[in-house]
Each structure stands twice: as structure tokens, then as C-alpha cells.
Specification:
Layout (H helix, E strand, L loop, with lengths): L2 E7 L2 E7 L8 E7 L2 E13 L7 E7 L20 H14 L9 E11 L6 H15 L9 E8 L2 E4 L3 H6 L2 E7 L4 E11 L1 H29 L13 H18 L5 H18 L8 H23 L14 E5 L7 E7 L2 E10 L5 E5 L2 E5 L1 E6 L16 H14 L12 E10 L4 H15 L9 E10 L2 E6 L3 H6 L2 E7 L4 E8 L6 H25 L13 E6 L5 H5 L4 H7 L4 E4 L4 E6 L2 H15 L7 E10 L2 E7 L2 E6 L20 E9 L5 E4 L32
Parallel strand pairs: 5-6, 16-17, 27-29
Antiparallel strand pairs: 1-2, 2-3, 3-4, 4-6, 7-8, 7-9, 9-10, 10-21, 11-12, 12-13, 13-17, 14-15, 18-19, 18-20, 20-21, 22-24, 23-24, 25-26, 25-28, 26-27, 28-29
Length: about 725
């Protein structure tokens, strides 16, 4: 049976339909907002998964036909997920994962396909709500529904579900998901926006989220399936007691070791010893013993924080780990820095390139090119582990994207700084907040490279521990505090405001009071980190690296692009013989890049001469093209000739033009006039001083008898 519910959201209709398509899925919805359509299907295996994690897979795919396009690759069909698709899948995963019961351990998949895109309404946000709706009407246990919206601010007014045009003018661009009571996840960027304004934007978003939740509730009431029973695993009290007796005291001691390696080693050794001690009494219980020790570790760490106000590395709750900064560590890189915060260390490198180095993005909106990009690499040695080496995964792509959002607002415009900029972060050591170290190190590397960023940017991670009504916010969390805590909030910003935010939680939601406190502690951390960064380098270097290319740009009339390129590219190839590389955009932006300043300047002079319009009063060096009885036609710019009348050749009377100029000669001339038809009048004599005693002739300065003059009485 087909069921459909709908509502008005910001003047557009949001509808959720089920029962018409994908009826064999455990839950499937057809989501439409405006003319954007996505289908979301949820399925869960009936065989229990034997493992120590919840096997949830979210897959988000954009069909190119949704935007009326054929894929631009060789095979002309959709291939592996793009960066955008991976990021959107990760976004959906973060909002729904905390809401599955801990004891539900069945292989679960949420599959999203974008079927229609109207260029205004975001399919990713629509899919986030669709994921909740599909699971809620299925038999899969889920503590929903939840809703998601994008929020912006245009002209000081908050806007829910802004269109693409509105986002161009917005200083906030955040995707927010939440339950009826609280916020669940946040991800987005902003342009130096105060924390109080971000909090207000979240409140505006939550009001719309509640309405979307009500809409889903109506659909669930009509066609929701009974949920599968979730059987909580029975705790073996005898085993738990034996483990506590052997391990509890040593776990407490291990949790007070400030060095991560010492703590991990002590706990790993403890697990092995307890397993050996209890092997005879509790055979084949190695996994249960390890799980019980993990529960003891988690409970003790959280108790330390909530009751003693202590952290496992001995810091205060709002204290940032020790920070060191090193600049210019790579001699041939254009800019480099090592940013170390505690046991998290990022080597960040900035590279400057030309227009030819931009990164192409091919998605539903069409092909576009990025001139600023951040890439993040997380090798296994950074955490003392081994693993399969392959292409960057969702985590690496997500961390790079977050750092890029944090830095992008301070990057100079292409008009002002016509370089392609790539920042790369190599994580050399990690104990949480490596993406925030990437922001700090990336900002330092850009300044070391001489990129004129508007102001430095820093990033900080904030955590949370909640037990009942008690809660504590932790500044600059460790990996263990992230793993055993309840929230991972990452904030990047300048001294003036925030530039990016990402929040994931492991509980059902958090209140606005907690978020306000978290923002306040994050701001204190940002100011502290920015102070240390400014001590190392307070502003971008004045000069670029000697190994960086030199890039010049010029905006020309698009109608003159053909003159620069020439027939079959002949002209542009001749310009590039200088050793420079020339790129011409459809909007008339011409970019010249070279490894030395001289070849770039030479190429730019050639381009200017091709597109420049003659100016009255300006002196040019031209070539004599034709000699006539009455003067010489001289080419002062490519394809632009003017007449230098015989009377303008010199201050003395010239009887024959050939006495002064011949075809092929080069001479300086001054433009003395341009008529309405574009004819150019030139003067050679105006380029040098008149002889002493020279008296300009009165009236018509041209001698009698010249061509075009009529003699008295002659018809």
C-alpha cells in the first residue's frame, strides 16, 4: 500500500513516500523536495554478526542523469564513489550510528541514490532525513526518528534549507541533524562568525528539525513495521567478578599513566595475564575477559573525570597539551611546518602551482575546478600499528575536507593571488585531533610559503563525558577520551570567529547548555593556540620561495581571447616559447606562470601588446608597414596601425617620407588622436624635444600640396 506524507518547508514541498518502489527492502522511502528526488533503502541481515563492532554500511551515490548529464569519464557510466559521495555517506553514517541499540549486531546497510537534482535543493540533506525515515518504517531497531536540515545566514537573517544562490551570499553553511530533544551532529563552514551566532543558527535549525520529525512520525504511525527484538547479552557475574578482582586495581593504575604507549602496553599486558589466569576456570572466554577489562577502563576513566576532575594524562579539564612549532623544515618545499600538540604531530606542506594545476570536480552540478585543496594522509605508523596500505579512505577524505573548510575562508582570491594552492598534511604521530593539527600546521605552512592569508587559523577538539545529570566538557581530548567519551566536537577559527565545525556524538543527543559550554572552552583553546602560532610566525612571509613558480594574471576583454590564442593556437605557442605557460579562461582571465620572473614578464608583455587598445598620449614603438607620399602607416600594436602624417615626422620640413622612414623600420611614435571610426593619428616628432628656436606653424600645420589638400582654384 502506498503511503505519502508531505509538508511545506521554506516555501517548498517536502514529501516522503513509501510502498510504491523497492518493496522488498526492509524499509524504503522516495524523498522529494522541490524537484530533487532521492531513494533511500535500509536492509539488515537476519544472521548475527560475530565481531566487536556494529557492521553498518552507508552508501551514497549520485546518478548523473539526475542532473541531466552523462558521466565525463572514458566509460560514460558512474564508477567508484567520488569524494563528494564519500563525504555525504560519512555524514549520514555519523548521524544514524549512535541510535542503533548497542546489542544489535546484524549486518546493516543504508543505500542512497540521487535520482533527480534541481540545482537548488541539496540531495545529501534530503538523504539524511530519508535514512531516518527508511529505518523507522522498517523492522530494524532504531531510536529515531531524527531530522536534518542545512542552515545559512543571508543579510543577517537565518535561512533554513537555503538555495544554491542563497549559499553564495551566506556567511554560514552548516548541516545539522537532531532528535526532538537535542542536536546529534553538525558539520559545516562559516566566515569568521562568533560562537554565539553559530549557537543561534543551531537553535533555528532544530526548530525545523522537530517539524520534520513530526512528519516522519505520521508516516511511521501509518505503515511502520514492528521492530525486531533485541536481546541484551547476559552478563556472567562470576566471570565479571573474577576479572574485577584481578584487574580493577591495575586498570586504575594504568589509567594514571600519562604516556599513551605506557598506558596501552600496561592494559594489553593485563588482558593477556588475566586471560591466562582465568583460562582454566572460564575456558574459551578470552573475548569476554577483554570486554570486561575495557568496561572497567571506561568506567574508571569517566569516574576520574566526573568525580575527581582528573584526566588520564594529568591535565586540567580545560588545559591544552604542550605545543611546539617548526617552520621551513623541508628545503625544497614552497612552505612547510611541523605542528606538534602532545602526542599528535602533523607535517604540513604548502605547494603553489599554476592554473593548469587546479583539481577537476565532476558531479551533478557539472565540471568545476578547485584552486585550493587540502589532502590528509594517516599512515599506520602514526599510531604504532600495521594495516593494509591502499587509497585514502572515508576517514582521511573527511579529515582533509574538514581542514579545507577551516582554512578556505582566509585564502586570498584568485584575482589577488593567482596561484593554485595545495596543502598536504602527513600525520606523523596521532593521539586524537589530528585534523585540527592539520588546520594549525596548514595555516603555518601557508604563511611560510608566503601565501597572503587574511589571518591565521587554528583548530581544537573538545570532548564530553555525561552520566545522568552530570556532565563535563574536556578541552583538547586524547584518543582514549574520544573513544571512551560521548562527544567529539572539532572547531576551527581565527581570532575573530569560527570558520568550520564538526560534531559527532555517541549518545542520543546533547543540550544547548552543553554546546554553549563546549563552544566557550573551544574558544579559549583557539586563542591559546593562536598565541603560540603567532610567536612562531605572525604574518605571511613577504617573498615566495625561490622554488615557487612566478604567476602573473591579466583580465582581458573576452572578445580578444582569439587574439591571444591565434589561429590553431599559433600565437599562444609563440608566447610559450619564452618558457612561460599561459592559461586563458572563458571569462578573459589570462594567467602566466614561469619558474623565473624574466620569462613571465616577457610573456605578459607580449600578451598585453596583443590585447591592449591604443591610448591617446601614450608612446609606442612601432614598425613601419607602408610608406605613402603623405606619410607612413605604422603598426604600434599587433593588428593596430596608425598614420603618421609627413608633417608629424620631424620638426623640420620633410620633402619625402623615405628621407626619414622606410618599410620595416622601427620607431617611437605618440598617439595624438583617435577619431570616431577608430582611425589612429600618430606623431613621431612628439616623442623628442623641439629644436631651439622652433616656432610651431599657425593654423593648418600640414604643408601645402600634400595629398588630400586642394589648391586654390582647382576643382
Amino acid at each position: 500500500m502506498v503511503e505519502k506524507v508531505e509538508m511545506e518547508l521554506e516555501g517548498r514541498t517536502l514529501s516522503i513516500e513509501t510502498g510504491r518502489v523497492a518493496k522488498q527492502a526492509h524499509g524504503a522511502v522516495w524523498m522529494r523536495y522541490g524537484d530533487t528526488v532521492v531513494i533511500v533503502a535500509a536492509v539488515a541481515d537476519h544472521r548475527k554478526f560475530e565481531g566487536d563492532f556494529f557492521p553498518l554500511m552507508v552508501d551514497y551515490r549520485e546518478k548523473f542523469y539526475a542532473g541531466g548529464r552523462i558521466p565525463g569519464n572514458f566509460f560514460k557510466r558512474e564508477g567508484a564513489p567520488s569524494t563528494t559521495e564519500k563525504l555525504n555517506a560519512r555524514l549520514i553514517d555519523h548521524q544514524i550510528r549512535p541510535l542503533f541499540p548497542k546489542a544489535f549486531s546484524y549486518d546493516t546497510q543504508v543505500l542512497v541514490a540521487v535520482l533527480s537534482y534541481d540545482q537548488d535543493n541539496d540531495p545529501a540533506v534530503l538523504a539524511m532525513t530519508g535514512a531516518s525515515a527508511a529505518i523507522c518504517i522498517s523492522d530494524i531497531p532504531f531510536e529515531g526518528p531524527i531530522g536534518a536540515v542545512r542552515v545559512g545566514r543571508v543579510g543577517g537573517e537565518y535561512v533554513v534549507s537555503p538555495t544554491c544562490d542563497q549559499l553564495e551570499e551566506s556567511d554560514i553553511n552548516m548541516v545539522v541533524s537532531g532528535s526532538r530533544e537535542s542536536i546529534i551532529s553538525v558539520e559545516g563552514e562559516c566566515h569568521d562568525v562568533p560562537e554565539a551566532d553559530i549557537l543561534e543558527a543551531l537553535k533555528v535549525a532544530h526548530e525545523a528539525i522537530v517539524k520534520i520529525i513530526d512528519l516522519q512520525g505520521e508516516l511511521v504511525a501509518r505503515c511502520g513495521k514492528p521492530k525486531r527484538e533485541v536481546v541484551e547479552p547476559e552478563l556472567d557475574e562470576a566471570l565479571a567478578g573474577a576479572v574485577r578482582e584481578l584487574a580493577e586495581g591495575r586498570v586504575v593504575d594504568a589509567n594514571r599513566l600519562p604516556v599513551k604507549e605506557d598506558r596501552d602496553s600496561a592494559l594489553s599486558q593485563l588482558v593477556v595475564e588475566v586471560q591466562e589466569r582465568l583460562a582454566e576456570s572460564f575456558p574459551e572466554s578470552e573475548g569476554a575477559i577483554a570486554d570486561e577489562i575495557s568496561r572497567i577502563e571506561k568506567a574508571d576513566m569517566r569516574r576520574m573525570i566526573l568525580e575527581e576532575g582528573r584526566r588520564i594524562d594529568g591535565r586540567a579539564l580545560d588545559e591544552v597539551r604542550p605545543i611546539t612549532v617548526e617552520l621551513g623544515v623541508l628545503p625544497r618545499a614552497h612552505g612547510s611546518a611541523i605542528f606538534t600538540r602532545g602526542q599528535t604531530q602533523a607535517l604540513c606542506v604548502a605547494t603553489l602551482g599554476s592554473k593548469m594545476d587546479t583539481r577537476m570536480v565532476d558531479d551533478l552540478e557539472g565540471k568545476s575546478f578547485k584552486s585550493f585543496m587540502v589532502d590528509y594522509n594517516f599512515p599506520s605508523y602514526s599510531v604504532g600499528e600495521t594495516r593494509r596500505i591502499g587509497a585514502p579512505g572515508r576517514r582521511e577524505i573527511g579529515h582533509g575536507a574538514l581542514a579545507e573548510k577551516g582554512l578556505e575562508p582566509v585564502i586570498p582570491s584568485e584575482e589577488y593571488f593567482p596561484y593554485t594552492i595545495r596543502a598536504v598534511s602527513e600525520i606523523l604521530e596521532s593521539n586524537s585531533s589530528s585534523s585540527m593539527a592539520t588546520v594549525c600546521g596548514g595555516s603555518l605552512a601557508l604563511m611560510d610559503a608566503g601565501v597572503p592569508i587574511k589571518t591565521p587559523v587554528a583548530g581544537a577538539g573538545v570532548g564530553l563525558v555525561v552520566e545522568g545529570d552530570r556532565w563535563v566538557v574536556l578541552t583538547d581530548i586524547l584518543g582514549a577520551e574520544d573513544h571512551l567519551g560521548d562527544m567529539d566536537l572539532k572547531i576551527t577559527g581565527t581570532a575573530g570567529g569560527m570558520t568550520a565545525i564538526q560534531m559527532d556524538i555517541k549518545i542520543k543527543g546533547i543540550s544547548f547548555d552543553i554546546m554553549q559550554e563546549a563552544f566557550a572552552q573551544a574558544r579559549e583553546a583557539l586563542n591559546h593556540i593562536l598565541g603560540i602560532m603567532n610567536e612562531a610566525i605572525s604574518e605571511p612571509r613577504k617573498e615566495l620561495s625561490q622554488y615557487a613558480p612566478r604567476i602573473l594574471s591579466l583580465r582581458i576583454d573576452p572578445s580578444k581571447i582569439g587574439a591571444v590564442i591565434g589561429p590553431g593556437g599559433k600565437t599562444i605557442r609563440s608566447i610559450e616559447e619564452t618558457g612561460a605557460t599561459v592559461a586563458v579562461e572563458d571569462d578573459g582571465l589570462v594567467t602566466v606562470s614561469s619558474m623565473d620572473a624574466e620569462s613571465g614578464e616577457t610573456a605578459m608583455r607580449m600578451i598585453r601588446s596583443l590585447v591592449e587598445d591604443p591610448e591617446v598620449g601614450k608612446v609606442y614603438e612601432g614598425e613601419v608597414k607602408r610608406v605613402m607620399d603623405f606619410g607612413a602607416f605604422i603598426e604600434i600594436l599587433p593588428g593596430k596601425e596608425g598614420l603618421c602624417h609627413i608633417s608629424e615626422l620631424d620638426y623640420h620640413r620633410v620633402r619625402r617620407v623615405e628621407d626619414v622612414l622606410e618599410e620595416g623600420d622601427r620607431t617611437q611614435v605618440k598617439v595624438i588622436g583617435i577619431d570616431e571610426q577608430g582611425k589612429i593619428r600618430l606623431s613621431r616628432k612628439a616623442t623628442f624635444e623641439a629644436p631651439e628656436g622652433y616656432v610651431p606653424p599657425s593654423g593648418d600645420q600640414r604643408p601645402r600640396g600634400g595629398r588630400g589638400m586642394r589648391r586654390p582654384g582647382r576643382r
